[in-house]
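Help needed: design a sequence for this.
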């Protein structure tokens, strides 16, 4: 049975991606490797990062997808593969994963939510940015170095006007996808 996901061209999505070992700090220990993996995938399969936070063992991201290629699953698979190939083999690999040629770095699946409107986008951006505080890593969200909150603080995030324009475009695309 194949896992089905909604993939609307041009839509925005919130994601949660976890390491298999939820006590690991691999993502922040190897943050440059993760950044390189994301850059590599974005070069070949573009997407726009609206918000992102990387915690020791999981990350949250909000992406908007291009009109011509809404396959975010492929992008996550490639990011995970690129990252995994760059990390030394230190983990114990269960036989079920060995049989499939997999590493024991990532949970196999990820969670996604299609952004519905401006309010939904804002609440998810806020959730992404407050996550390091929620998990007790810092007292203030702006103190966490692995977060897009710094783009927002310094004026490089979505301005309300640009955010509304993007959401209006996304809403039109979602409606168009529903008519087909």
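Sure. Designed sequence:
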């Amino acid at each position: 049975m194949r896992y089905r996901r909604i993939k609307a061209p041009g839509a925005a999505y919130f994601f949660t991606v976890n390491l298999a070992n939820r006590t690991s700090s691999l993502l922040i220990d190897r943050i440059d490797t993760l950044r390189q993996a994301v850059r590599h995938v974005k070069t070949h399969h573009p997407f726009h990062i609206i918000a992102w936070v990387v915690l020791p063992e999981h990350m949250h991201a909000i992406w908007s997808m291009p009109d011509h290629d809404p396959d975010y699953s492929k992008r996550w698979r490639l990011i995970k593969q690129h990252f995994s190939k760059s990390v030394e083999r230190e983990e114990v690999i269960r036989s079920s994963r060995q049989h499939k040629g997999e590493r024991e770095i990532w949970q196999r699946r990820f969670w996604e939510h299609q952004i519905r409107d401006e309010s939904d986008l804002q609440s998810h951006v806020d959730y992404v940015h407050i996550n390091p505080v929620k998990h007790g890593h810092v007292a203030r969200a702006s103190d966490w170095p692995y977060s897009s909150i710094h783009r927002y603080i310094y004026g490089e995030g979505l301005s309300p006007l640009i955010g509304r324009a993007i959401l209006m475009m996304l809403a039109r695309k979602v409606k168009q996808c529903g008519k087909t």
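Residues 160-179 form the longest helix (20 residues).
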